[in-house]
Amino acid sequence: MAEPKKQFTPEFRAEAVRLTQTSGRSHREIAADLGVGRSTCSATIRMVTARQSR
After folding, report:
1. Which of 2, 4, 7, 25 shows the shortest CA–CA distance to 44?
2. Is the dihedral of CA 18, 21, 22, 26 positive or negative?
3. What is the pTM assigned to this prediction?
4. Are 41 and 31 in contact, with CB atoms under 8 Å apart?
5. What's the mean pLDDT in 2-24?
6. Alpha-carbon distance 23 to 8, whole Å?
7. What are the structural domain ranges in the chain?
8. What are the E-state strand segments in the chain?
9. Do 15 and 41 contact (CB within 8 A), yes or no?
10. What is the residue-averaged pLDDT of the chain?
């Protein structure tokens, strides 16, 4: 049986974005630290930065 889809809090998403903007590390490294897949991390970062630019 498949695992239920993870729900990420706004705080978690903000932290992922903050890490990419301030740490100089790759999405892959940040995703590993946060315990999520690289594509999930990248999509979250794109979504949050798009919302911030509106």
Report:
1. 7
2. positive
3. 0.73
4. yes
5. 87
6. 21
7. 11-16+26-52
8. none
9. no
10. 88
